[in-house]
Write a structure and sequence with these properties.
The complex is a heterodimer of chains A (454) and B (287).
Chain A: H1 9-38, E1 50-56, H2 63-82, E2 86-88, E3 91-93, E4 95-96, E5 99-101, H3 106-118, E6 123-126, H4 131-136, H5 139-142, E7 146-149, H6 154-157, E8 164-166, H7 171-185, E9 190-196, H8 199-215, E10 218-225, H9 233-241, E11 246-250, H10 253-265, E12 274-277, H11 288-294, E13 298-302, H12 310-323, H13 329-348, H14 353-367, E14 378-380, E15 386-388, E16 391-397, E17 409-411, E18 418-421, H15 446-453
Parallel strand pairs in A: 1-4, 1-5, 1-6, 6-7, 7-8, 8-15, 9-10, 9-11, 11-12
Antiparallel strand pairs in A: 2-3, 13-16, 14-15, 16-17, 16-18
Helix pairs in contact in A: 2-13, 7-8, 10-11, 13-14
Chain B: H1 2-32, H2 39-56, H3 61-84, H4 91-113, E1 126-129, E2 132-135, H5 136-158, H6 160-170, H7 172-178, H8 182-208, H9 214-229, H10 234-254, H11 262-274
Antiparallel strand pairs in B: 1-2
The chains are: A alpha/beta (454), B mainly alpha (287).
């Protein structure tokens, strides 16, 4: 006899009611649990502090240049903590600064980011390789994490990302001025270039080349630099054969030093100026050969890089004590941008990254005078985050400077190239368009830029 | 035509430098049958020994070269005594040991000295002959390369010690039975091989500069030359270096930059596919 034959209607209805009740209770409990998980996080670390992380190379490439940046973020946070921390709704919070090793790679950057996210850190700055921020973007929005970026690149900083604070100059804004300077002031007409083979290098190449060629110059030899490449003799010989009168090195640190060294001994003597982009700083001029090879290289830096004040002296002394290095452009990436984000938390009276990023333009407008890079405001876009309006200056590296007491970069004489806008005008379609949109002029010439600014 | 000649010269000079980087590794392969994956690290450390001797003590450049040789010699002998000797016959352990030493050396160098490029001031003149540009530093490195390779060949093939180490290489057990101190000769060979790496590093600092990152490029270059020329073949080292240098120079000189790096790799793949013993691998007796 089957079990089901014993089932009476009464038992069936009773059992059914019990089942329905059970499912409802379980469903209710599950819904409550789900509801609890979906509640907005408190944006504090387990220690009850605000986490502002640093993700920069501690191993792999660019470790020497990243040390000033790492310490810049730390100094900004230390100063804020020393003045009582961040005050939100009557409560003061100290800021912790966990540091992750980017390893100058996408994988390293991702691993470091996930660690920060797991520790409930909702803010981070740094990201020096192109690959690391490219890997982290998108994931940061899912994790409610505001990233502070400073590495240019069309496919990098012009993608959609509502929780990105871009704190540095765009290549599109600085390249035309470099080209104009090379053509109009230096009188150069035939440029040979070597660039890091990625979107960062490409941005600087095109932003320079379009203006240079519009003015009447020629980009006669374009080549790429591979990360593990150590010999550049063939590319240099090609440039010599094509009679270049200026060398544009779109790369910094060790590889740039190697290119410059081999260029000088390979037929491009010191009468051929070096135009530089990337991680260039006093660390490249610390020994006799660095001084001899690269003295006078022309480079666009933040205004603060060409100045010296008591505050510069204090920061430089502190940095040298901690790292045996001097202020460089990368220091200026991290110092003021970190302060801006911390102040924005107070401005918004919130730790929610979405509210904090919205408060950045107000903070920059109110407190620009307290910042050493002297920004002219910030551009809040619909879905590409916020862009800092940072003025730049073209200068020449002075290898003979006493880096302990004076700036490494000396502003050029011409006023046109001092304090020029390092940001694209608000009306530029790049702030709204998809980076793959070929209809957009991603690298406008100087004339087009000037017309856009009105 | 001028550019073609210049690229040819570039290739020959580069090839000479590649041979200089590789001779030590070729010796280790030939005599000790060891794939030393710390070779690049010892190349790098030898360079730093010379750099610090030059900068801190102000020694002349020729003394800096001797310092590099001595420092790298001692490190290589130490590696043999503490590692390779214990793992002889166990290729996986030898490989892991070498890789481990390389990682520690690189990380330690970054922590100790930073990762910025360093230089030793050598002659930075550039000679111009009939429109050809000949950097003095590269010429000196090539001359040194030929001298060192010739010296090693002479020592290994024409001296009493060379006979001994060849005997040890052929059959270590039999050599021991005959009365040779194989342990001592392995130590000396390892030291010589890595000493040559350190020397190469110093001679190439004026060309490529020095940083902790040079260990990778040195190792890959040395491996490529040794594979091309034939494991353990000293003449193969020169020929392999020259071939690789010329192919590299022409690839980077005439092909689009994104494609150029693939050409030397393609050469290696073809060598492994069609002549896995290398150009001189099976035709010549090892070393």
């Amino acid at each position: 006899m089957s079990h089901f034959e014993d089932l009476s209607r009464r038992r069936f209805l009773t059992s059914g009611a019990q089942a329905i009740a059970g499912v409802s209770v379980i469903g209710g409990l599950g819904g409550w649990a789900f509801e609890a998980q979906a509640a907005p996080p408190d944006f504090l670390m387990a220690s009850g502090k605000i986490g502002f992380g640093t993700i920069l190379p501690l191993s792999g490439g660019f470790t020497v240049v990243s040390q000033p940046w790492i310490h810049a973020i730390k100094y900004a946070i230390d100063e804020q903590n020393a003045s009582g921390g961040i005050k939100i709704k009557g409560k003061a919070y100290q800021v912790e600064n966990p540091v992750g090793d980017e390893q100058y790679s996408a994988q390293g950057g991702l691993t470091a980011f996930h660690r920060l996210a797991a520790d409930k850190v909702h803010y981070s700055g740094g990201y020096v390789s192109v690959e690391a921020p490219a890997a982290v973007q998108g994931i940061n929005e899912q994790e409610d994490h505001l990233i502070v970026l400073g590495i240019t690149g069309k496919d990098l900083c012009l993608t959609r990302n509502k929780l990105r604070f871009y704190e540095y100059a765009l290549a599109q804004a600085t390249g035309p001025y470099m080209a104009d300077y090379a053509y109009s002031v230096l009188g150069k007409r035939r440029v040979g270039s070597i660039e890091l083979a990625n979107t960062w290098g490409e941005d600087f190449y095109f932003s320079f080349a379009n203006t240079f060629e519009k003015l009447g110059g020629k980009m006669v030899a374009r080549s790429y630099l591979q990360p593990n490449q150590s010999d550049f003799s063939s590319q240099i010989s090609d440039m010599v054969a094509k009679n270049v009168d200026a060398l544009y090195i779109i790369m910094g640190d060790g590889p740039a030093s190697a290119v410059a060294l081999q260029a000088r001994s390979g037929g491009l003597g010191t009468d051929i100026p070096i135009l530089a982009q990337g991680a260039w700083g006093p660390e490249m001029y610390l020994d006799a050969q660095g001084k001899a090879t690269m003295d006078g290289a022309i480079y666009p830096g933040v205004v603060a890089y060409t100045q010296w004040s008591d505050k510069h002296q204090k920061l430089n002394d502190k940095l040298y004590k901690d790292t045996k290095l001097y202020l460089n452009n990368w220091f200026w990436h991290g110092y003021d941008s970190t302060k801006i984000v911390l102040w924005a938390m107070e401005q918004a009276q919130s730790l929610d990254p979405k509210e904090v990023i919205a408060a950045i333009p107000t903070v920059v407008e109110k407190r620009s005078g307290e910042l050493m890079i002297k920004p002219s405001g910030a551009i809040a876009t619909k879905d590409k985050g916020v862009y800092l309006k940072i003025p730049m200056t073209i200068g020449r590296f002075n290898a003979k400077a006493d880096f302990a007491k004076e700036p490494a970069l000396v502003a050029v004489r011409e006023a046109k190239y001092q304090g020029f806008p390092g940001w694209m005008p608000e009306s530029w379609p790049g702030y709204t368009a998809n980076p793959s949109d070929k209809a957009i002029d991603w690298y406008p010439t100087m004339d087009a830029l000037t017309a856009m600014r009105g | 035509m001028q550019l073609f000649l210049q690229q040819s010269v570039n290739g020959l000079l580069l090839g000479g430098m590649f041979a200089l980087i590789s001779i030590g590794l070729s010796l280790m392969f030939g005599i000790m049958k060891v794939a030393n994956f710390a070779y690049g690290a010892l190349y790098m450390l030898g360079g730093y020994a010379a750099f610090w001797a030059s900068n801190l003590l102000g020694v002349p450049n020729w003394v800096a070269i001797l310092v590099a040789f001595a420092a790298a010699f001692m490190m290589g002998a130490l590696m043999e005594g503490l590692g390779f000797a214990k793992f002889r016959g166990n290729e996986e352990a030898t490989l892991i040991f070498g890789l481990g030493v390389a990682l520690i050396a690189r990380g330690g160098a970054v922590l100790a000295w930073g990762s910025q490029s360093r230089f030793i001031p050598f002659s930075f003149n550039t000679y111009r002959i009939g429109g050809l540009v000949l950097p003095a530093a590269r010429i000196w490195a090539c001359v040194a390369s030929l001298a060192i390779v010739a010296g090693v060949y002479f020592v290994v093939n024409r001296t009493a010690w060379g006979r001994i180490i060849r005997a040890v290489s052929d059959n270590a057990e039999r050599a021991r039975l005959v009365g040779f101190n194989t342990r001592l000769h392995y130590l000396l060979t390892a030291g010589l091989a890595t000493g040559l790496a350190g020397t190469a590093s110093v001679l190439l600092i004026p060309v490529f500069s020095l940083s902790p990152a040079v260990d990778d490029s040195a190792l890959y270059t040395a491996m490529a030359v040794v594979i091309l020329g034939g494991l353990g073949s000293i003449p193969g080292c020169i020929v392999g270096g020259l071939v690789l240098g010329i192919v590299t120079a022409f690839a980077f000189g005439y092909l689009p930059s994104p494609i150029a790096p693939a050409i030397p790799l393609l050469l290696l793949i073809l060598t492994l596919a069609f002549k896995p013993d290398g150009l001189f691998g099976s035709a010549e007796r090892a070393v």
